[in-house]
Fold DNA topoisomerase.
Amino acid sequence: MRTVLMVAEKPSLAQSIAKILSRGNMSSRKGLNGTCSVHEYTGTFAGQPVRFKMTSVCGHVMTLDFLGKYNKWDKVDPAELFSQAPTEKKEANPKLNMVKFLQVEGKGCDYIVLWLDCDKEGENICFEVLDAVLPIMNPTHGGEKTVFRARFSSITDTDICAAMARLGEPDHNEALSVDARQELDLRIGCAFTRFQTKYFQGKYGNLDSSLISFGPCQTPTLGFCVERHDKIQSFKPETYWVLQAKVNADKDRSLLLDWDRVRVFDREIAQMFLNMTKLEKEAQVEATSRKEKAKQRPLALNTVEMLRVASSSLGMGPQHAMQTAERLYTQGYISYPRTETTHYPENFDLKGPLRQQANHPYWADTVKRLLTEGINHPRKGHDAGDHPPITPMRSATEAELGSEAWRLYEYITRHFIATVSYDCKYLQSTISFRIGPEHFTCTGKTVISPGFTEIMPWQSVPLEESLPTCQRGDTFAVSEIKMLEKQTNPPDYLTEAELITLMEKHGIGTDASIPVHINNICQRNYVTVESGRRLKPTNLGIVLVHGYYKIGMDELMEVSFSPLAATGKPLSRCGKCHRFMKYIQAKPSRLHCSHCDETYTLPQNGTIKLYKELRCPLDDFELVLWSSGSRGKSYPLCPYCANHPPFRDMKKGMGCNECTHPTCQHSLSMLGIGQCVECESGVLVLDPTSGPKWKVACNKCNVVAHCFENAYRVRVSADTCSTCEAALLAVDFNKAKSPLPGDETQHTGCVFCDPIFQELVELKHAASCHPMHRGGPGRRQGRGRARGRRPTVKPSARRPKDKMSALAAYFV
DNA sequence: GCAAGGTC
């Protein structure tokens, strides 16, 4: 007979599930670690009779840590922990000998069914179990499937049986996401903790810097406390004014009325309203209403709510409350105390636990009444698929439990009785008054039936005097009307209960770990617990959190500045997503693609325009035209190439006039004419956008040659000058404006050597006309053919030897 | 000596 090994996440679940699947017909024994049990029974699986072995692990089998040698704080740079230090998986709890236990039980098994909790951590534990067990299980028979995953959402007969009937496979990706989470937690936590601790160690006399920890959960937890502290510190009280009126209800009773305007923040305005009402002798009833309202019974109790109430009403910290609850659970007084669920399964036996309380000295009457008159169905809550809500399982007295455990038990029990009790019903009466032109209201509540508030008296509708019976048109004598000056108050420090709510809302920690994180920030001396279990950050806690904000800077900057995506104007299209990028003019000017979340720096100190919607042939980004002004130079550039140079000999920030692309029409290769007359490495490049005041500009220095004014077309020819190797320019003029001899409108020649062009070219500097920069005798006038390649050949090799003075005269 | 997750 083949054997099916089944593994749950914890011993209690293995037992419950085995009980359901075996219909109570199983034999149980303890495993070798003394903690996990094995429940065995027979049944059918995959159409054959089999033996089932249901057991469990105890949470995670493995834990992630750095290799042992990285434990030496003095010898390891924390930065190494952040990225390079290798990690290894170790047994989470060596005492439990979990791997050995799984292997002993798994040996000789043919199939495995994974009953781990149905969340990511559970999925990860599936693979921890498989790593331990698969190598020692029987070999598979002809590719038959042997690994199964049971997916269930509650521990009920129907759900468990349905899961068994529809087994799937474990999800490796979910498990891997937990591996990633573990590694991030470890690296971030350890690296920053060691860095902070070492940084502050021995620096300040009054600071206990033995351990200054940082973590992805504990630090945000502390952050909430400091945030509240900052709100208190920066609070500026405001004065406001309220009108308060009293009317005579009966002979000896007066009624306090609330002003419909609630309050005003301007004294003179308040005074004006007072003046308008203070001489009135009567308050007139304008309307009355009576509405029946209900205060809902509580949802069934889950861990987080229990911790909240333990803190706020019992003054019991979450860690302590959890320990107490666990003891009550192991002693059989309450059900499993770690659950997110606030919904009882349909077939949950609510009367059983209730009957247990029928003779309790404190609430026997209430319970007996519920049992005889019928219980109310609990409200529909949230089913997280883990465990039923926290429920008292057995009656207990204070003497039996001791004061602390009793108080928690009493609360859990009262809460449970409340969930099967009726809502509290009350009558809300409202009378609307008018005194002069101003409106006032008076409300009163009277309880119709207390419902659950009988067992939870602290939830009672506060006793209020009932309102006099009256109707529209009645009048009451005004006994007093006055103006009260009050002030807005700062919030108080965060209560533990509020912190738990914030953590839950922001997904910091889990129901099981929230108490640990809160405990951590207390133990590390980041916060102290004040009266009413309010958490007041210490100087250390405040300084740390403020420091993190400063490092992040965003928090401070965003107050005054808007993010990139919300700034700038659409200019050119991104080559990746083909959406418009925004041009941010503020220095340093850049283009930002909000879709790709990429920023491209642009050359500074000039203007940027779209360049005819032309695109770079390399990356499809739309080109932009950079210009230093009408008398300066301009060139197209590709935003992507300028930030990611496409060729080896290009540098960041280069435009198309320095691009060595062999065929692109905007490149140096196609528009370059010859070496610069002034600088060593520059090349004069035709600016194709400059007509009709054509320019040739050096792509390195600020030399600009103005030429061929009024030509309607200037092109760089493929031919070169036979004397100086510079590229020839082909120039076209209109007939009317042609400066060419005869009636010529076209001419092709060398810009340096051609006598006809001599009159048509003038050298200037882009930025300055200082004589120092003018070309002249003795200065360097190298130039040469640069087309198709950068002038990598030394200028001197191609410099015409006998033309120095001629060129000097020519260009000045 | 460090994190966070699971469970005892």
